[in-house]
Amino acid sequence: MKVKICGITDVTTGIQAAEYGADAIGFVFAESKRKVSEERAREIASHIPSEVYKVGVFVNETLPEIERIASIVGLTHIQLHGDETAEFCQSLSYPVIKAVSFQGNEQLASIGTYPADYILLDSPKGEYRGGNGKVFDWHQVDKNLLNNKKVILAGGLHEENVESAIEIIKPLMIDVSSGVETNGVKDLNKIKAFIEKAKGIAIGGEIK
């Protein structure tokens, strides 16, 4: 199972997350308590191995600004968390992760044709477009609507519920932020435990 640790804001946490086995780290450039400057993100990214995805999270940002930040920081993927259109997605020169706040399968049916490289299933919107730390009912998701998509699961995941989440949704990757924090700050012990738990879960008789 691949793991993305999102909301990274300092070099030490970025380095340790990668060493613990994170496959991707996320930098939030939208309004959030985890928002990071492009200068800080660039510094962190420069210490992360090349094989680890560097994902930039944006909400309704302009195309030139996304491309500018991605180039400066050294991003490998763009995560769109707003109301971006399919045409906007296609115009980006980076692989795209399109976040969807799950509010029913009718919505998922329409996202099935969205031209993104990955679909990120997140909990319904809260104060911010993502990173609200709330779980949604995974059993409600009609996975047939996502058969041809690479799915990333987010929304209130932590060490105690990640096994159930993986078994029900069977995503390609899981995305965690608040679930590996203590008092709003990334906790290295929680990051290590979460990654070990997620990567040790057997689905269909094999470790994913």
Automatic annotation (TrEMBL):
It is an enzyme of class 5 (isomerase). HAMAP family: PRAI. It catalyses: N-(5-phospho-beta-D-ribosyl)anthranilate = 1-(2-carboxyphenylamino)-1-deoxy-D-ribulose 5-phosphate. Its EC number is 5.3.1.24. The lineage of its organism: Bacteria, Bacillati, Bacillota, Bacilli, Bacillales. One of its GO terms (molecular function) is isomerase activity. Pathway: Amino-acid biosynthesis; L-tryptophan biosynthesis; L-tryptophan from chorismate: step 3/5. It comes from the Bacteria. SUPFAM superfamilies: Ribulose-phoshate binding barrel. The gene is trpF. Keywords: Amino-acid biosynthesis, Aromatic amino acid biosynthesis, Isomerase, Tryptophan biosynthesis. Gene3D superfamilies: Aldolase class I (3.20.20.70). Residues 3-196 form the N-(5'phosphoribosyl) anthranilate isomerase (PRAI) domain. Belongs to the TrpF family. This is N-(5'-phosphoribosyl)anthranilate isomerase. InterPro entries: Aldolase_TIM, PRAI_dom, RibuloseP-bd_barrel, TrpF_fam.
